[in-house]
Q: What sequence folds into this?
């Protein structure tokens, strides 16, 4: 459960700063169905304000000054980034314009709740000497933390902007994209620009309102609005959606129920026939038995979880394509388990490296920085030297995309920390970043030539 | 009877006494004799028989005794006749032999001459022969052989001849009738031959009072006089001509345009013409005004092309530019607006933008700044296609990782070297590279 939040010390806000402010932030939400504070300030029950995701996954702005907005739109995509802008100007005559919300550059006009502030109200969220927080809200004595990633967070006070200073439409793709060079914005005395591509506490605005990490652990991610990295998906993470746990922005997965065989599948898939991808999974074992990691045909993800398919058992569900490696070092594909693969058994904190040659249907495993199992050569291309070769199999033929998978085939609580390029295993940074010619992502060990990270940029190389 | 030589005198024979010494046998005779019988020789009262008692030598000029006359003996010779000591006329009247008189004849010496009227030889005393100077119509009957001598007054040389043994050419002096000048000419065996007049040493050839230089001048010089009859070589004086400076002008075609033509020695209102370099077609200026001696203000309307400029002054002196200095051409233009060419993702690879322009000839794009092309820290790391104007890159911004606006100037140059510059900007943006994970 997330517990990280940021704060800073404000100067005493002016009335104008309480009447006008803008919060812009790029967020990648890791968890749905829970209340998660983005920007909050609670001094008392009558002196509080929050911008947050509600447990119904709507975006809300509540302010005890008399404001309560809740979008009808649900924010439930854990595989991408949202650009959220809340622009407040209580001086406007039109009440409906006093609170404006933008999602990915578009103004949100549909609200389930839309109680506007009175004209010239000073909002409690901004007009307070209490300490505001990012990533946490406190309501009735309970803290609600944001679970995910925030990048390029701007707060302007005394000045109001729409989404355009902070993002723009890509002329080629039509997608809303981040502006990393923000110009023409006046931040006001208490404004700031935080988390600009790093977790340095620096205020990147013209102010010096640096933040401090008031709770939890803030870790750097390569995952950002311009390059989304694959994580385990909270939308596909265990049988009955209840008994596997994802943490650390969905980079860490472990079983929570003895009968759940599938922990999770990644948010991004690798297209058959295109690209070569490398990732690392660190095995944080609890029982050391029957755990497995690998890739799976994403066309079967729904069945996988709904039916709780035991993929680590080669003899079962042979229609579902997969290339797995279990804790005994055996390779597993649909219908075949190879005890002579030569990987060797896992130990705690072993890092299982996997190179997926999607162009040739060839897959390679390596433990830590050793040799590739079975004398594999991920750079051998169509020769598929030492590869787990499925390119001529039926599961390969009928597949379209393959995702990273982790799970087990027995009772127990195995735990995997997935690094698709973020440079962390959970909250621990890689200790010795390997070489990576593609320049995308940070890995513990060397990335084979021609391989890259499973991210949006990696997919588009 | 005719007698060549000394006139015989009857009864008056010459006698020569010979003084003997008892040893000398040869004695010179006072007169040469033709033979030994022309003498009566007596010694000591004895008449000597010719060839027995004596003989002749020296062509008859000596007598040689067989026995040397004795001292004290009276010895004498009587000349019955003497040898012919002058030429004689042969049957056709030609003197075939002679005895050269090696000295000036005495005034009373007799000369022989042939009286053609009378057909007889006559003698005349030298003193009675008229002097040449007195001959008012002297003539030569043949070539005058001066024999290496000069012709003069007897003391001073007037004319000196030098003979060349192999000579075939000579000088002919020809007099002339009224209204014609006499002539000294080179004549002789050669068909074409020079006539040389050579003064001595540093002396000069003076013809009719005109003193010619005694040394050659430089090439292309001419002879000039100082007005006192002295000629010398001198350079041909150049007239003061105008010049047209090769200062280029580019004007729009078919548009009356004022330009300044520069040069030197301008005066008056010159005629200014523009000569098309490829066809030679001439276009006159619309107007011309003289600004000063080095500048003409000219208004002209020209068709497309390049032109030489020709200026002709009122005095007819003219000059033409050595280069085609006037270009009539439409200047290139940009069709791409100045300013931003866009915001480009940092590290972008591909075509960043394409600038466009045109002219009435082939154009080429280039960068006048050093911002767009190049990969130093402040350069955009792009390449500019000079033909298409395409700006491409393999890594926009190069090593830069911060948003940067690159301001640069591009130039279009057309075939006539006309240029137009325009400033553009490209801005790099770098996408987000990370975020903060709230664990």
A:
């Amino acid at each position: 459960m997330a517990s990280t939040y940021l704060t800073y010390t404000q100067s005493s806000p002016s009335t104008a700063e309480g009447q006008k402010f803008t919060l812009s932030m790029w967020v990648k939400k890791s968890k749905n169905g829970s209340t998660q504070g983005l920007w909050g300030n609670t001094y008392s029950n009558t002196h509080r304000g929050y911008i947050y995701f509600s447990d119904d996954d709507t975006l809300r702005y509540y302010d005890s000054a008399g404001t309560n907005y809740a979008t009808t739109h649900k924010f439930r995509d854990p595989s991408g980034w949202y650009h959220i802008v809340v622009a407040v100007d209580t001086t406007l005559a039109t009440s409906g314009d006093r609170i404006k919300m933008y999602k990915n550059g578009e103004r949100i006009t549909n609200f389930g709740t839309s109680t506007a502030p009175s004209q010239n109200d000073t909002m409690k969220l901004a007009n307070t000497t209490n300490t505001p927080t990012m990533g946490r809200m406190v309501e009735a004595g309970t803290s609600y933390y944001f679970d995910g990633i925030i990048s390029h967070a701007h707060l302007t006070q005394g000045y109001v902007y729409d989404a355009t200073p902070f993002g723009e439409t890509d002329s080629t793709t039509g997608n809303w994209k981040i502006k990393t060079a923000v110009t023409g914005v006046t931040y006001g005395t208490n404004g700031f620009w935080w988390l600009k591509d790093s977790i340095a506490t620096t205020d990147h605005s013209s102010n010096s309102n640096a933040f401090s990490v008031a709770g939890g652990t803030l870790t750097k991610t390569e995952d950002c609005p311009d390059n989304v990295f694959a994580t385990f998906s909270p939308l596909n993470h265990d049988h009955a959606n209840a008994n596997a746990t994802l943490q650390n922005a969905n980079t860490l997965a472990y079983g929570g129920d003895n009968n759940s065989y599938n922990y999770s599948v990644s948010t991004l898939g690798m297209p058959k026939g295109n690209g070569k991808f490398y990732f690392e999974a660190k095995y944080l074992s609890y029982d050391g038995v029957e755990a497995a990691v690998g890739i799976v045909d994403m066309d079967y993800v729904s069945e996988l979880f709904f039916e709780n398919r035991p993929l680590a058992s080669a003899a079962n569900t042979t229609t579902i394509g997969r290339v797995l490696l279990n804790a005994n070092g055996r390779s597993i594909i649909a219908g075949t388990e190879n005890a002579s693969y030569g990987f060797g058994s896992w130990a705690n904190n072993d890092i299982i490296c996997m190179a997926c040659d999607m162009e040739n249907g060839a897959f390679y495993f390596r433990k830590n920085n050793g040799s590739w199992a079975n004398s594999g050569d991920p750079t051998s291309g169509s020769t598929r030297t030492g590869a787990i070769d499925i390119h001529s199999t039926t599961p390969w033929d009928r597949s379209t995309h393959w995702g990273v998978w982790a799970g087990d085939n027995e009772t127990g609580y195995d735990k995997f920390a997935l690094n698709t390029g973020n440079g962390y295993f959970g909250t621990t940074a890689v200790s010795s970043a390997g070489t990576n010619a593609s320049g995308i992502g940070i890995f513990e060990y060397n990335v084979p030539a021609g391989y890259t990270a499973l991210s949006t940029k990696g997919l588009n190389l | 009877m005719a007698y060549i030589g000394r006139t015989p005198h009857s009864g008056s024979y010459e006698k020569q006494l010979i003084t003997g010494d008892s040893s000398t046998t040869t004695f010179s005779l006072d007169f040469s004799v033709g033979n030994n019988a022309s003498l009566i020789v007596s010694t000591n009262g004895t008449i000597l028989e010719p060839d027995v008692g004596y003989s002749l030598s020296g062509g008859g000029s000596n007598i040689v005794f067989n026995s040397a006359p004795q001292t004290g003996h009276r010895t004498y010779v009587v000349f019955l006749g003497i040898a012919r000591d002058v030429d004689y006329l042969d049957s056709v009247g030609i003197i075939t032999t002679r005895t050269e008189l090696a000295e000036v004849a005495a005034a009373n010496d007799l000369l022989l001459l042939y009286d053609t009227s009378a057909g007889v030889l006559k003698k005349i005393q030298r003193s009675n022969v008229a002097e040449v100077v007195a001959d008012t119509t002297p003539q030569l009957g043949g070539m005058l052989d001066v024999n290496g001598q000069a012709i003069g007054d007897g003391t001073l040389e007037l004319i000196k001849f030098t003979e060349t043994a192999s000579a075939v050419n000579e000088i002919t002096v020809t007099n002339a009738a009224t209204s014609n000048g006499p002539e000294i000419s080179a004549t002789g065996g050669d068909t074409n031959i020079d006539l040389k007049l050579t003064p001595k040493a540093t002396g000069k050839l003076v013809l009719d009072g005109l003193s010619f230089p005694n040394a050659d001048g430089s090439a292309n010089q001419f002879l000039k006089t100082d007005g006192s009859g002295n000629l010398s070589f001198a350079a041909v004086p150049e007239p003061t001509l105008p010049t047209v400076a090769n200062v280029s002008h580019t004007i729009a075609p078919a548009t009356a345009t004022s330009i300044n033509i520069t040069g030197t020695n301008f005066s008056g209102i010159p005629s200014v013409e523009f000569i098309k370099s490829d066809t030679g077609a001439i276009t006159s200026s619309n107007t011309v005004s003289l600004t000063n001696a080095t500048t003409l203000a000219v208004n002209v309307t020209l068709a497309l092309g390049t032109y030489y400029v020709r200026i002709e002054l009122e005095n007819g002196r003219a000059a033409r530019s050595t280069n085609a200095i006037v270009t009539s051409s439409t200047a290139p233009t940009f069709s791409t607006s100045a300013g931003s060419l866009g915001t480009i993702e940092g590290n972008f690879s591909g075509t960043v933008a394409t600038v466009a322009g045109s002219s009435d000839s082939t154009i080429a794009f280039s960068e006048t700044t050093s911002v767009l092309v190049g990969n130093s820290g402040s350069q955009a790391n792009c390449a500019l296609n000079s033909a298409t104007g395409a700006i491409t890159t393999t890594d926009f911004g190069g090593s830069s990782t911060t948003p940067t606006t690159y301001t640069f100037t591009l130039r279009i140059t057309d075939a006539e070297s006309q240029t137009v510059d325009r400033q553009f900007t490209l801005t790099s943006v770098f996408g987000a590279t990370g975020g903060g994970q709230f664990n």
Q: What stands out?
A: Chain A has two domains: 5-215, 239-459.
